[in-house]
Amino acid sequence: MLKLALCVLLVLGATAINVQSSIWTNRDQKALAQIHSSGWGKFILNYAELHMSTGGILSELNSEIEKLVGELEEELAGVHHEFNRRTDVHNREVSRLEQEIQDKERELFNAHDFYDNVLIPQRDRFAAQLEQLQENIAHNRQTLEQATVQRENDHETFEAEVAEHNDAISAIDECLQLLSTITAPSLAQIKKVQKNLTKIQNSLKKHNQFQIFVKVLLEITVESNFADQGALRDIVVAFNNLRVELVDSLNQITADEAQAVADFNAQVAQLNQEHAEFQRAVVVKNAEIEANATKIEQTLDLIDELDADLATLNGQLQAENDDYAFATDVYNSTVAEYNKEINAANQALELLNQPRFQDYVKSQLKGA
Fold this sequence. Notes:
The longest helix has 124 residues, at 57-180. It contains eight helices and no strands. By secondary structure, the chain is mainly α.
């Protein structure tokens, strides 16, 4: 290219022999003055003078310039082709990177959404469920402890009532035994019967349903001297009735105690079953919490990885755009330089084919 460019400068430089000659127009003089003012112009001027002295300058210069224009245009077409190819590569690369960036941004959004709207609410929900299970276990054990204490208290009450009933029945049996032997009761025997009635009254003072019987018997024994056999029989009947009531009451509280024991055992079994279920639920919930924590950690790692990938892709896109911008600048400057040389060659060709150029060459040769 340098050789061809020198040929252009050679032609233009040759015309700088005398820029003030009347043969040139003002426009020609300006173009020739620019060449004459350069070092290359002076060099070409000397070369042109030497070449013109051979007599073949016009035809050779014309041919060289035409060849130069063709080569420059061919090279410029190559520059266009290479830049177009680079542009295609750039467009494909930008399209690929933008698509990958869009995909990464979607993945990153989904990861954040999964973390914020699934994993964190799930973590909080699992924690609340575990706390509720622990409260259920505590309440279950508290209920069992309270039921056990109540059962012990109820059993103690039952045993006390059984003892009271047995004492009362024993006292009645003693009275009946004593009354069965009375024919002419003495004061000591009467006092003993009354003492037993007082004992029965004390034993049954917690049981209001028996107080009326005891009160009647006390009144009878106080008013009666047991001499009247009819009155004595009434007293014996009253004692027997009271004994039947006491035995029935004892049987009932015994049955109630048996039912209470059965109910307590059933409640204990149910509470223990619930406790075992709660414990199993705690194990399951702890496993869910651990799995949730692992998933949170993995998701945070994924978010960091996607952030890094996205930064890399954006960096690659920026680098590609910068590189293409530089290539575009180089392309534009190269095209401008080629266009400048092609225009110069065309100007030289136009000047070479003007009649006044040939006249000027002849005048220069005559002057020599």
